[in-house]
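hey so u asked for the seq, here:
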Amino acid sequence: MSELLLGLDSTLLKRGTLAPFTVPLGVGLVPRDAVRLENRLREATGQLASKFPELARRPWWCSTHLLRKCPSARAIDLLEPIVKALLTEVKVAWVIWTVTRLQSVKIRGLTEEKEVSREKFMSNLQQDYVLHSLWKVRRLEPGNSTYHYLLDGANPVVSGAFLDGKLDGFEILYHGDEVSSLVCSADIVARYIDLKLESMPDPTRKYRSAQLNTENLEGIFKGSGIVLRPAVIGTRDFHFTTPLRAGGGGVTLPVRHPITYFLREPPPREAGTFPSSAVDTLEAFSPMGDFVVNRAIEKHGCWKRWDNSDLSRIDERTDELVYQGPTGEKLANWIKLQRPGLKTMRFGSSTPPSSPGG
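ran it, structure tokens below
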């Protein structure tokens, strides 16, 4: 692929319990060759699958699912060989994080101003940190409009970043760390940085583990041959990274299509009440979950759990909807009435996706 790509994902570094310290971390990777990087990720995952056979059900896994799939392995031992394989095909690694001495931060200044603690602000910031990281990269390298940026899923938070016109040339991929080899690589490197810093002693001996700073990052990437681009989103940048008003109205993010929609089949009443997070995890590791992810990878798109608001966003030419049981079938049939061109598919059936209008 001749197109210049940069894949972005983020994680949240948490340290301490009595006096918790939280830092959002964004990682952006520029591959030397996107195809070779994907092959490296596939090969590294395949090698792990020899020890953990269930990993063979997908060509790669995001760091969260990978660690849950292999609970017997030490996290850093699991990720390190993958990272070493990936870095041979990475040209530039952006590492972006946020620091502030403020004990609290004011947000939503355009509508209903409120003040939140630094820890809560940092934690909330991570939800859209791929957008903040993109803004910082574009701010530091305004000439980088030649890049096409692939970002893991994010919410359209109204911030100054959208007002200064620096956010363009990017695509949002729902569950990007599962379907895009480049975003998955950024996700794995971000999680590895967190684990590596936690395993390193602090040179100053002030803290239990090494701090997130340029010197320690250089130590992690030493000998890899990549160009490290560290960047800090500081207090002076908060106008561009804090939500200026409640809700996400007024901002539309460019989402990659095709989207494979996942229609949830609710647990039977006899099973009692399940928290949505438990159902999400169960579905993510189910055969249908594997099918949906692999389908999205095959179609070079992304996937999303169906929400009724998606009805207005469907692209009937490319998107499709996968369901499993009787409840999902009823909803799929109703959606088909509203969007006749949408392909629908029952998981586990030998029947191919219905043809447009069929």
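The chain is about 35% helix and 20% strand. Residues 99 and 305 are 34 Å apart (CA to CA).
lmk if thats what u needed
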